[in-house]
Structures are given as C-alpha cells and as structure tokens.
Amino acid sequence: MRFNTVTHWLRILLALAMTPLLATSVFAAERTQVTEEHLVQTKNGCNTVLRIEYSSEYPTSKEFIELRKDSLAKSEWDGECANGLTTGAGKLIEYNLDGAPMMYSEGVHLNGMAIGFSKKYMAKGDDLVLEEYVWNGTEYSQLNLHRLPLAPRRWNDRVPLLRKSTPTERIVVTLLQDAASGDIGRCDKQTGVMSCVKYVRTAFRPCADHSLEKCKTWDDPEETIYPCSNDCLQKWNQLTQPLLVDYQEFVNQTQPELDAAVNMAMAPILAARAEKIRQQETFAEHTRRNFASAARVQQALNNANQLRRPVAGPNLDALIKKIKESKP
C-alpha cells in the first residue's frame, strides 16, 4: 500500500508540471485547452484555489481534477488565512493514506493561489522537485534541475524540464538522456533516438467560442529534437540559457508589484495582530500600575500603623513598673 501511495503522489507532482506539456505533444486537428479554478477548503479550514489546465483531447484529466480536489481537502495550510483564503508565506502539506506528510508546497499565496516563487517536493522517498514563479498569467517552471549535471541514466519520470508559459505562447525544453519508454520519456518514436534535448514552442490564441472562459487553442507545436550523447548537457545549456535570462528579468520586473500586492493583502492581518499586541501590552501596563498603586497604599498603611505603636526598648517594663510604684 505504501509503495502504491508513493507512486500515486509522484504521478501527481509530475502531472502538475507535465499536464500542459502533454496537451501540446499530441498532434490533432483541433486543440482546445481550458483553465479551471476550483475553491477547495483544506482540513484546517482555510480555502485554496486549485487551478489546472486540461485539454479536450484528454478526458481522464477530469478524473485528475477530482483526485486533486480530494487531496487538497485533506491537506493543511500553516500560513495566514485572509477572508477565508490562504494568504502570505506558508506551506501546504498533503498527506498519504497513512496520514503521514507526503508532499509539501512552499511559497507565497494571494487570494488562495500560489504566486511568485513556490516549491513542491516529496516529504521523503524521492527527490522530485518542481519550482515555479507565477505572476499575472506568466509562469516559469523548473522540474528536477537540481539533478544536473548527471551521468547518462534512464530518466523515466525524472526528466529535467524548463518551461515558460504566457497567455500567448509556451516554450518547453526537456532533457531526455538514455530515455526509457512512454510519450514523455522518448525522444522520437520514429527514429528511436534515446538521448536528446527536446525544444517545443506552442503559440496560443483565444478560443473561437468566446463563451468559454479562460480558454485557448493552438496549432501544431513547433517541435525540434536535438540528438545528443556526450554533449547533452552542452545542448541543454545552450537552449535553456535564454529562458533563464528571461526568467530573471521577469522576476526583477514583477517582484516589487508582487510584494506590494501581498503586503496589501497582509495589511489587515498584521494590523489586527498589532492591535491585539497593543491591547495586551496596555492590559499588562494597567496591571503593573495597579499592583504598584496597591503596594504604595499598603506601605502608607504600614507607616501609619507604625506611628501609633509605642517605642519599644529594653527597660520599658522596668519604667512602667517604676511609674506605677511612684503613684500614691
């Protein structure tokens, strides 16, 4: 059961990065891709938004959406919750069938969605890592880049991948070295090439049916396969360097705007927290002053009582006796 659970979650994490790629890898007469957003309440009560793209060519994607919704409903968010939505920096923790942490999603949320930098990784048992930067419809994704450089091996679902996605295009660069089998893990079914760097560019346009919200369509992707053996990493670096430069420029341009949006969303939370701290400090100060005032009153009473007492001395009894004896 545990092995099946791990395999199941690895497929989920891989699908998070690869679903749009799968949608562009099948050549068909007409392609329509729809973006759906579902509000899901986590186990500890804060809502998060499940945003997923799927193609009409893949009806099983609907099943995947239900699977993700069920998984998120059992997850926990350890960050702030503003207006019922995950907000600010935090970690979304998803669990396996045994109730143990299985996958972590770290990053910043705004209105229930991950924005800016985020990182998804398994709790244990695998080093599959998906890193993303998302803002205003543009997304940069890096899958398994921490594995580079590596000696030739069978990648299967551990392929290094770099992706840039905007409302008008998507570029995906994948390193397939000693690839095994399957649509993702094979360079070219016709030629049987097993080691390559694959470059795929897809141009998007709005759907003809404007009643479909967040829908786009595309023609055949521009796919180029660069066979390689010992120079795979060199070709990979050559193709990914422009994307990495674009990525850094995009971060530099958008980070201030992103930070401002998060700060605005966090402002009411921080203000409420500051007010609570102020009230606690005011209560503590009042308590301190009350104790000090009570101590001063008690000291004054003690001083007054002390003045009413006779002055004691070692010959007091003898003096009293002498006074009594002197009386007629």
Written overview of the protein:
With 328 residues, the chain is of the alpha+beta class. It has one domain. Helix content is 38%, strand content 31%. The protein is built from 4 helices and 14 strands. The chain has helices at 2-24, 60-73, 232-308, 316-326; strands at residues 32-41, 47-55, 76-77, 80-82, 85-95, 101-110, 113-122, 129-135, 138-143, 161-165, 169-176, 196-206, 215-218, 222-227. Strands 1, 2, 3, 4, 5, 6, 7, 8, 9, 10, 11, 12, 13 and 14 form a 14-stranded antiparallel β-sheet that branches. A hairpin with a 5-residue loop joins strand 1 (32-41) and strand 2. It is elongated, with a radius of gyration of 34 Å. The termini are far apart. Mean pLDDT is 76; it is low at 1-7, 19-29 and 181-185.
List the helices and strands and how they pair.
Blueprint: H1 2-24, E1 32-41, E2 47-55, H2 60-73, E3 76-77, E4 80-82, E5 85-95, E6 101-110, E7 113-122, E8 129-135, E9 138-143, E10 161-165, E11 169-176, E12 196-206, E13 215-218, E14 222-227, H3 232-308, H4 316-326
Antiparallel strand pairs: 1-2, 1-13, 3-5, 4-5, 5-6, 6-7, 7-8, 8-9, 9-10, 10-11, 11-12, 12-13, 12-14
Mean pLDDT over all positions? 76
User: With helices defined by DSSP (H or I, 4 residues minimum), what is the helix count?
Assistant: 4
Distance between the termini: 112 Å
Strand content: 25-35%
Low-confidence stretches: 1-7, 19-29, 181-185
Q: What is the makeup of the main sheet?
A: 14 strands, antiparallel
Number of strands: 14
How are helices and strands ordered from N to C? HEEHEEEEEEEEEEEEHH
Rg over C-alpha atoms, rounded to the nearest angstrom:
34 Å
User: What overall form do the CA principal axes indicate?
Assistant: elongated
The percent range for helix content is: 25-40%
Task: Give the structural class.
Answer: alpha+beta
- Estimate nothing, just give the exact number of structural domains: 1
